[in-house]
Amino acid sequence: MFSFKKAAAGVLSCTMLLGSLVISGCSDSNTSGTSNSSSTAHQGEIKDISSVELVKDMKIGWSLGNTLDAGNESNRGQDPGAIEKSWGNPDTTKEMIDEIKKAGFNVLRVPTTWDWSTGEAPEYKISDEWFARVKEIVDYGMENDMYVILNIHHETWHYPTEDNYEAASDRLKKVWTQIGNYFKDYDEHLIFEGLNEPRVIGTSEEWNGGSDATREVVNKLDADFVSTIRSLDGNNKLRHLMIPGYAASSSEVALKALKIPENDDKLIVSVHAYTPYNFALADSKRSNKWVACKEGFTNDIDYLADMLKTLFIDKGQAVIIGEFGARSKDNEKYRAEWAKYYVTKMKTVGVPCVWWDNGAFLGSGELFGLFDRRNLEWRYPLVKDALISASNGEYTVDGLKSDTAILDELKKDIAQSKNSSAE
After folding, report:
1. Could you write out the DSSP letters of every residue in 230-253?
2. I need a surface site. Which of 235, 244, 286, 336 has the fewest CB within 10 A?
3. Count of alpha carbons within 13 Å of 377, Cβ hemisphere only?
4. Phi and psi for 321 in degrees, rounded to 5?
5. Annotated catalytic residue, options 129, 193, 197, 366
6. pLDDT for the residue numbered 423
7. Taking Cα atoms as reference points, which of 219, 206, 234 lies closest to residue 267?
8. Average per-residue pLDDT in the chain?
């Protein structure tokens, strides 16, 4: 997911770092792309298995948010390190990813903006330096035996309008041809995600599930992505690919409109779902409590899981919640309860989930940070533990709904809030 507030949160968390950025130019790569990193983890033969089988091995995921997907027009042509740190997060190190895996996450999503390191039309050549840095981070995950999801993120050139389709399609094919060729030797642990939340930004339909016309353009771009990767050499014929509906929306209208290319069992539907909205994403701290045993609290999560099961899972179609999370509102224990239920419910229908961690802990923005990358520690261990334990199957939906222990804490919180207001 992207919003100005989400980007700003990352900047606010560490704006003082910006003055130390070193800026230099970056050169173009050739269209084929050649990997120069010495790591060969998970390169070689790729298993010929369906995406339904693949996702069974995915427990829980973590996104390296607001990092390789950072930057704006002022970062165009800069050194990869300057782009990576431009929204306030530090350089990504293997030690960070080691800690993520050690905690129990076995999926690493690497959101990546290629635009600032891409040359002009008609070639749209991606720089060697940027490719090398992306590969370095991908390899951090591979060396930890993680599944790595690599995408194009925060790009603004693929607006899904009919007027823009031809230009967007041309660039999409050229960008993914380079990426596909560069990473062609990786096995099934590397997954490509064709688009991130494709939508018409700044319009009334940006977040409402789109229109018939814009949803159809997204379907066409998805098909272009799939056909492009399948046309390449190496392991790309068997590469697992994630495709979203309009805006990767969890709305029924967007999901029902998604057209999945036929005769390909290595496709995964990508859905983003910060739900229920008032608790998970809205900025009001009034909606900062959540308990599974209270009537109605689980409705939105239950509805989404049941819809994914009906539309996709029951038809043999794999699904991943590629982004989810609940922003911090000084409510760690309630976020932990929510995380337990969310992941447990999705696990019952066979849908793994990937937490959006933007590294943001301070300020008034969207504070989805869990892991303190500078100090290599978990700021919200209750939430982290809930994600891991739920992904390991330690809870049941009925058990969580019948557990009333947290209600006593909720009543105390409400009483304390009333007393504070009275004072």
Report:
1. HTSSTTTTS--EEEESGGG--SHH
2. 286
3. 2
4. -80, 95
5. 197
6. 63
7. 219
8. 91
Does the annotation count 323 as an active-site position? yes
Q: Which of 116, 245, 95 is nearest to 175 (CA)?
A: 116
Instruction: Verify whether residue 205 is a known catalytic residue.
Output: no
At residue 418 the predicted structure's pLDDT band, cuts being 50, 70 and 90, is confident
According to the 3-state scheme, what is the secondary structure of 333-367? HHHHHHHHHHHHHHHHCCCCEEEEECCCCCCCCCC
Alpha helix locations (H) across 258-380?
A: 277-280, 299-311, 332-348
Q: What are the structure tokens assigned to 374, written together? A: 């500078």
Q: Which residues pair with 126 in a beta bridge?
A: 118
Which residues have CB under 8 Å from 379's CB, separation 6+?
361, 369, 370, 371, 372
Going by pLDDT thresholds of 50, 70 and 90, the confidence category of residue 1 is low
Q: Which helix (H) or strand (E) holds 271?
A: strand 267-272
Reduced to 3 DSSP states, what percent helix, strand and coil does the chain have, rounded to the nearest 5? 45, 10, 45
Query: Cα separation of 356 and 348, whole Å?
Result: 21
Its pTM stands at: 0.90
234's torsion region: left (phi>0), alpha (psi -120 to 50) or beta?
left
Amino acid at 250: S
Alpha helices for 14-152 (secondary structure H)? 51-55, 80-84, 94-103, 128-142
Tell me what pLDDT residue 401 has.
Answer: 95
Q: What are the counts of helices (DSSP H) followed by strands (DSSP E) for the chain?
A: 14, 10
> Which residue in the list 323, 337, 366, 394 is annotated as catalytic?
323
